[in-house]
Amino acid sequence: MVPERERPRVFSGIQPTGSLHLGNYLGAIKRWVERQDEKESFICIVDLHAVTVYQEPEALRRGTRQLAALLLAAGIDPARVTLFVQSHVRAHAEASWLLSCITPLGWLERMTQFKAKAAQQQSVLTGLLTYPVLQAGDILLYDADEVPVGEDQKQHIELARDVAQRFNHLYGDTFVLPRPVIGEAAARVMGLDDPTRKMSKSAKARGHAVRLTDSDDEIRRAFKRAVTDSGREIAFSDEPEKAGVNNLLEIYRATTGRSRQQVLDDFAGARGYGDLKQRVAEVVIAAIAPIRRRYRELMEDAAELDRILRQGAEAARAEAEPKLVEVKERMGFEVPDELRR
Ligand code: AMP
Ligand code: TRP
Q1: How far is the CA of 27 from the centre of ligand 1 (A)?
Q2: Are 168 and 264 part of one and the same domain?
Q3: Is the pTM of the predicted complex or chain greater than 0.85?
Q4: What range does the domain containing 45 cover?
Q5: Active-site option among 39, 117, 242, 277
Q6: Whose CA is nearest to atom 6 of ligand 1?
């Protein structure tokens, strides 16, 4: 049955590939941290999603621990949030199979992220196509109603909702229908080198992204080189040629939590874009430098990190396993006692 809950449940996931950047922080992580008191939250390091493109095994292992440490450093509090690694909870892979059997191929072929990633590859792996089904399982196993993500994930969350609805229709009310919660500021942080492209982990160009582990000087340099335009006007704008300046202002707004008007007031006396870039860099450094310091400390305490992830997986299993049993029973599977807890 779909449970009635007092507090909305939040679920979100993030892949342990590449270095986290300012887009991940402002579009997702900072918002998870801000909401961890009001909502019952589950934050999942989605290593099973990561292998939809080949990962060097050592890099995957390292990336998973680094991401866990970085999330903790950014303020995710394991006392208030269930932080866990997806592959530590077997129910995710199993739910993905079951849900794939009620998901029409056409739904998956329509996903814009699939189309974009598939177009870059010679041979397209099956997992890349069924990726959103695994994601639907992540969310549905926890009865999550809210999924805070960046704009790029909206379509995947809507698909999870469609899958839940279809399952409920076929087998009776089982899943909560989730909805994407997209932040108003920084839903889409753009590349500093090219403000027409979203800041992404996979882009390798220097000066594209600001990583959470970058030094203060690296951050200053990246902003200094940020692409703007030949004008002088510091204003929020949807015009393509102002995309660079708009991106800098949006970064400043999301980092400081100030309103658009306050941001414009802050820059009323600015002397051109050089000044703008420098001041955006300084607020970003103020936000990121403490995260980088805490991250280094956490990476040195392997036992503590293990303990936190073990505890998170245990709490996640306590939710996901009974839900999976319910799903299987609804579908008509025999569930032996040893699979019940
Ligand atoms: P990913 O980098 O694809 O693993 O994404 C992790 C989280 O960060 C997801 O919630 C994304 O929607 C969010 N995200 C990724 N890139 C950006 C960006 N450039 N701007 C805002 N949010 C982003
Ligand atoms: N696909 C998401 C991304 O690339 C990560 C993800 C996996 C996720 N499972 C999730 C996000 C469940 C929200 C909820 O960003």
Answers
A1: 6
A2: no
A3: yes
A4: 9-188+302-339
A5: 117
A6: 14
